[in-house]
Amino acid sequence: MSTLTSIISRLRMRHLRLLIALHEHGTVQKAAESVALTQPGATKALNEIEAMLGVQLFQRTHKGLETTDMGLCAVRYARLINTDLAHFHEELESMQQGRGGRLAVGLIMGAVPLISAALSRVRSLQPAISIEVVEDTSARLLNLLDRGRLDAAICRSRVNQRPHLYTSLDIHEEELAVICHPDNPLTRHSALTLADLSDTSWIVYPANMPMRLLLEREFHEAKIPFPLYPIETASAFTSISMLGHDRESVALMSVDASKPFVDAGMVYRLPIQLHSRSEPYELVTRKGASLSPATQLFMREVALVGNLHADVEAYIESL
């Protein structure tokens, strides 16, 4: 395979567009037509790409082209580059016309209520801004941040083995709740302990996630075995939906994330006091990354709704 420097100097956008078209159409002729090339020109360009990378990207069959595993990898990154270029053009055009540019932020479920308020303020202050919001786990959001897919994330940088790669500011310490179906028999109690839930079916976060570790610690400190055969999901929506059909199970969720569902009568918050609190989630950016005006506006609005204005100004100045 060629060196990265060689690939950068030889790879062209027409190569990337052709890779995407070949994967989508499955034939050289149709792909060539879609990117305004002749069939011989497309064949020559594909040979150039495969020679440059030193791998076969497409398998020629009697049915047409089949994308190899190496090809799927190449197509995935071709799409990312193509998308980034489109976003670059969109943001540059917006800035030239005096509009607000583009903002891509990630957040964990527990941060949704707080960040929704911040994003609403950003939208009211800068209506022309283009905003992308990605909800996922902290680990996946940090991966997107590493790859430049996000400008900032509201998550926990400590789940990464290299937290020093990020600059972060604590925003909010989560209080945790145990929730269930409104008709669950446990709702008849005025007070509960973990011991009362030891034989209950649980919906829990996957292993090694902060909320799961916290629940395991609660059971360990109470000297109670962790529930057997739990249902594992990182999706709060999945937990809520499952509780809607299950009048026996309980689930752990942050108070902020569960409140809208509790207020709507979809679930019930059980009267149980957990002694541990989840680690604070943070406003996270890549260390050394330059912050666009849209990103700085978002960070200031997060600080405003979280009463962190002085802290975030110093934070931005330090970047």
TrEMBL record:
Keywords: DNA-binding, Transcription, Transcription regulation. Residues 11-68 form the HTH lysR-type domain. GO terms for cellular component: cytosol. GO terms for molecular function: DNA binding; DNA-binding transcription factor activity. It comes from the Bacteria. Belongs to the LysR transcriptional regulatory family. This is LysR, substrate-binding. The lineage of its organism: Bacteria, Pseudomonadati, Pseudomonadota, Gammaproteobacteria, Oceanospirillales.
